[in-house]
Specification:
By secondary structure, the protein is of the alpha/beta class. It has 14 helices and 14 strands. The protein has an 8-stranded mixed sheet with strand order 1-4-5-3-2-6-7-8, sandwiched between helices. A 6-stranded mixed sheet has the order 10-9-11-12-13-14, covered by helices on one side. The protein is elongated.
Length: about 375
């Protein structure tokens, strides 16, 4: 069931929710939390679909906040709130309210969301894209116990991880961290099967993939060994190789769905490590509403490592000056001449002698007499 409200208020939206529940025959509220999704119009459909699938495991009231940009300057000064209320089959196992904010009210979304929160229930805020730099300081993030971001959707994921570490607050988490949960579980189980000491680790995956970076940070933080990051064509995270004193331990996933676990002295085993969709990731995050200390430790360790690897280059030292030149300058002499300023000025002011070429000073050579020409044969005969 869908109820469209134009130029409405939070009070009218609450009345529409009660009306919708009564219309479908479920007047009682059986939801366990409020999920607030802050997104744009382009990504609203995918976010709503993921939240609807996750609501089968966690019945919740989903509030989708879409900040619309008015086309004309006149419309930007006018505040308006449009809402779409979905209950029943159109909202999964919970309730969904799509809020579209226009004008100045878009800058005060928390005032619209606050009256619609379920009483005495936890609040989770999720930014599928364009997450704020400090989620805990955001007006909407301040209402929540858990704040979910996704650095994979940012243009510079590795730099975004550094920003997340600088502004981390208890309750922050990231879907890039959730994506590596099966990898962390499988690697921990592999180490439990062998009594060994890990000497080094190699993490292989796509370039600029935050999940690969977070896994490398977690391994370096927990094992206290060198971790090398290598690149591959993907998809996503492809392999982890641990060098131990009992032989190598390799977890390789080349096709993005089925991985192979290889342990020295044991047969290879196939492991299901498929790439999960957003609905599964959100459902996992909603299972835990307390702060994730392991994520915080790995995130902060990784930032220090990244800062060390990107230290600014030191400028090469300039060549030392010649002591003789420095002494000449100290005495007031022209460098390299041994003359003082007065002698140098006199030398520059003296007129230069004219330069004459050798060809101009030498006399011109006398021209040789021209040879007598022989008489023509006809004239000789006439003379005789």
């Amino acid at each position: 069931m869908k109820i469209d409200l134009t130029d409405t208020t939070a009070s009218k939206i609450n009345k529409a929710l009660v009306q919708g529940r009564r219309a479908i025959g479920t007047p009682a509220v059986g939801m366990v939390l409020t999920l607030v999704i802050v997104t744009d119009e382009e990504n609203a459909y995918d976010a709503l679909k993921a939240a609807g699938d996750a609501s089968r495991e966690h019945p919740s009231r989903t509030l989708v906040v879409i900040k619309r940009v008015s086309r004309s300057p006149r419309d930007r000064t006018q505040s308006r709130l449009d809402a779409e209320v979905r209950v029943g089959a159109d909202a999964g196992t919970g309730e969904t309210v799509v809020l579209r904010l226009y004008g100045e009210v878009a800058d005060h979304a928390q005032s619209v969301v606050l009256p619609l929160l379920l009483p005495d229930a936890p609040v989770v805020v999720w930014w599928p894209v364009n997450a704020p730099l400090d989620p805990a300081a955001d007006p909407l993030g301040a209402l929540a116990q858990r704040r979910v971001t996704d650095t994979y959707a940012s243009e510079q994921p590795v730099r975004e991880l550094g920003a997340r570490a600088d502004t981390y607050a208890p309750g922050d988490t990231d879907l890039s961290w959730t994506r590596i949960t099966p990898w962390r579980s499988m690697l921990a189980a592999a180490l439990d099967q062998v009594t060994c000491t890990v000497n080094s680790v190699e993490v292989e995956g796509e370039e600029f993939n935050p999940s690969c970076e977070l896994l490398a940070m977690w391994l370096a933080d927990r094992l206290a060994v060198p971790v090398r990051r290598s690149l591959s064509g993907g998809p996503g995270l492809t392999a982890v190789r641990m060098a131990t004193d009992a032989g190598p331990i390799v977890l390789d996933r080349a096709d993005g769905s089925l991985a192979t676990l290889s342990i020295q002295g044991q047969p290879d085993r196939a492991v299901a490590l498929k790439r999960r969709d957003t609905a599964e990731l959100i459902a996992e995050e909603l299972r835990r509403l307390d702060p994730d200390d392991t994520y915080a430790s790995a995130l902060r360790f990784g930032v220090a490592r990244l800062n060390a690897s990107t230290a600014p280059r030191t400028r090469a030292p300039e060549p030392a000056a010649d002591p003789a030149q420095e002494g000449a300058v100290a005495k007031g002499e022209e460098p390299g001449t041994g003359e003082g300023p007065a002698e140098g000025a006199a030398r520059e002011a003296a007129p230069s002698a004219p330069v004459t070429s050798a060809s101009a000073s030498a006399p011109a050579p006398a021209s040789a007499p021209a040879p007598a020409s022989a008489p023509a044969p006809g004239k000789k005969a006439a003379a005789k």
